[in-house]
Amino acid sequence: MPNALILYVNRGYTSPYALSTFVTLREKNLAFDVVEIDMNVDGHKQGDYRTRSLTERIPTLVHGDFALSESSAMDEYLEDAFPETPRVYPSGVRERARARQIQAFVRSDLMPIRIERSTSTVFQHEKPAPLSAEAGAAAEKLISFADALIPADSGNLFGVWSIADTDLAMMLNRLVHNGDAVPEKIARYVRSQWARPSVQAWVDLARIANS
Predict the structure, then answer these.
(1) Boundary-marking domain end, from 87, 116, 136
(2) Residue 101: left (phi > 0), alpha (psi -120 to 50), or beta?
(3) Which domain holds residue 33?
(4) What confidence category does residue 167 fall into, taking pLDDT thresholds of 50, 70 and 90?
(5) How open is the CA angle 5-47-65, to the nearest 5 degrees?
(6) pTM, whole model, 2 decimals?
(7) pLDDT of residue 37
(8) Preceding amide of 59 cis, omega within 30
(9) Residues 67-83: tens digit of each pLDDT
(10) Calpha distance 129→95 (Å, rounded)
């Protein structure tokens, strides 16, 4: 099919960024194929994948003869390319900007958490050490950020679900899953977002890959 959609992911299904675009595709009810790249043998730096991705990173989305990497760009591309399907970004200008802010924040900040609570601790159930002082400070920053945005009833950030909910919940679940101290409102929010069928479809793939 000339306009088929292909999502390239890492073989262990631990990438939070691949998760984001996988969920976007599922929520928009788009048919797509998943292709696994083995990063343990530098599959992301070789051959056709390297040429298509440009950045040599996971994930990459291919739509016909167009290839795009960087998950938030991929999410926005799918929103624009398939406007007739369910939206994954808020319809309001300010809410949409806030959603993009959340996506940028969890991708560009909080490095100590991303190091000490890598997603392998969530999807492959590795047991991490207690948070360092630096990571603890980053956790406090994340919790303060999330607490200001998550409604009192722990519902979706903008009333209706958006892909920013998945991305924020993924970052927070690095703490919740590992038993780090998190306010109950935030823990409820994470559990609710994690139970979403599109997210659980990814979790099932990770479980199979890591069993």
Answers:
(1) 87
(2) alpha
(3) 5-87
(4) very high
(5) 30
(6) 0.93
(7) 87
(8) yes
(9) 999 999 999 999 999 99
(10) 37
Confidence band for 15, pLDDT divided at 50, 70 and 90: very high
**Tokens 């399907």 sit at which residue?**
85
Q: Is pLDDT at 63 greater than 80 in this prediction? A: yes
- Is residue 65 one of the residues assigned to a domain? yes
Tokens of 126: 């590795």
Q: What's the whole-number average pLDDT of the chain? A: 93
User: Tell me, what amino acid is at 136?
Assistant: G
The answer to the question of residue 39 being in a domain is: yes
Contact by Cβ (8 Å): 34, 9: yes
